[in-house]
Amino acid sequence: MRNYFENDYTSYRFHDDILHITYHHGVHIDYNAAVGIVKDRLSLHQGQTFPILCDIRGIKTITKKARAYLAVEGSTLIKAVAVIVEPPVSEMLSEFYIRTSKPPIPTKTFTNTEEALLFLKSYQNSPL
Predict the structure, then answer these.
(1) Domain range 4-121, CATH class
(2) Could you tell me which residue ranges the DUF7793 domain spans (predicted)?
């Protein structure tokens, strides 16, 4: 399994059986970008499920269609997601996204990476 990958929008790396996804600073995410991001992530999974640490602080804008795609199709092969946000703006947007998109997997926002990792560790050995 590949340990690191990067595309125009995100970088992906595995650490302690958690996939860390970091969005590049200033990116604009539309539907096509979301599809590519999910496709790249799934190629790294190789059919296995993982908890995801997703740092969205670099996102400048994201369309409604992209959010909807990431909430549903983007949940494939994910046990749980911890979203790292920058208060107050991305925190409010992320909480709104969770309430309105209703992702089918456990999803929670954090401003602290250590707390996010603790949340995800409880899902590491759980079945999907």
Answers:
(1) alpha beta
(2) 13-124
